[in-house]
Amino acid sequence: MARAASTKGQTRIQKEKTEQILNAALNVFSTYGFRGSTIDQIATEAGLSKPNILYYFDGKDAIHAVLLSRLLETWLEPLEHLQDSETPIDEICAYVTRKLEMARDYPRESRLFANEILQGAPRIIDDLAGPLRTLTQQKADLIHSWIASGKIAPVDPHHLIFSIWSTTQHYADFDVQVNAVLGPQTEDRFVKAAAHLNTLFRKMLEP
Questions:
Q1: How many structural domains is the chain composed of?
Q2: Are 96 and 202 in contact (CB under 8 A)?
């Protein structure tokens, strides 16, 4: 069990230690994956002793579980904000922008999620087949209603959502490849990416 799954009731120092451990673990897990990561690596990254880590968490499974729980809440939020609109293309492109901003602001979390998926999602399969599937179906139905009313071009709603996920998360999950092709990070990289994706999806969705 994760003793630090909730910071409620903890002292300020305990909360800080908990976040210090989780931040270090996020670095480790997003780099080496769950199987390649150890408590010793997390302790070194956090600048704490192994016993200190185990005072707050029962093991790496508990730490990983907390990180995934937080991640899923963050990951679902942009899709939840996709709402009915008289200008659905604008609404969809706003969703694309939010997802791209997440790739920019939360690259470690994106890679953590990708690593979990590549392993067959053993720790979050119930969430994927439950809350994520339900939410995605709701938004697919919304997109279908826009198609039926002639507001956007006919597309497969589910595969449109998959395309948005893949094109935006690429900038986090394949950051090394992007850097190898484009060279050192530049401030306007995501600005250009946003402009490109906006054009791409707008042209595809124009009725």
A1: 2
A2: no
pLDDT in tens, 12-37: 888 999 999 999 999 999 999 999 99
Structure tokens at 194: 């946003």
Residues 48 and 87 in one domain: no
State both tokens at 122.
């053993």
Tokens of 84: 């009915």
Sequential DSSP letters for 135-148: HHHHHHHHHHHHHH
From CA 64, how far away is CA 107, in angstroms rounded? 16
Task: Give the Cα separation of 79 and 138 in Å (integer).
Answer: 10
CB 136 within 8 A of CB 79: yes
Angle (CA) 53-58-59 rounded to 5° is: 75
Give the Cα separation of 68 and 113 in Å (integer): 8
| Centroid of chain to Cα 172 | 9
The answer to whether residues 144 and 51 belong to one domain is no
If asked whether residues 200 and 154 sit together in one domain, one would say yes
Domain assignment of residue 185, yes or no: yes
For the entire predicted model, the pTM comes to: 0.87
Task: For the chain, give the number of residues.
Answer: 207
Residue 206 CB neighbours (<10 A): 9
Distances (CA, A) of 127 to 21, 25, 93, 141: 24, 22, 26, 20
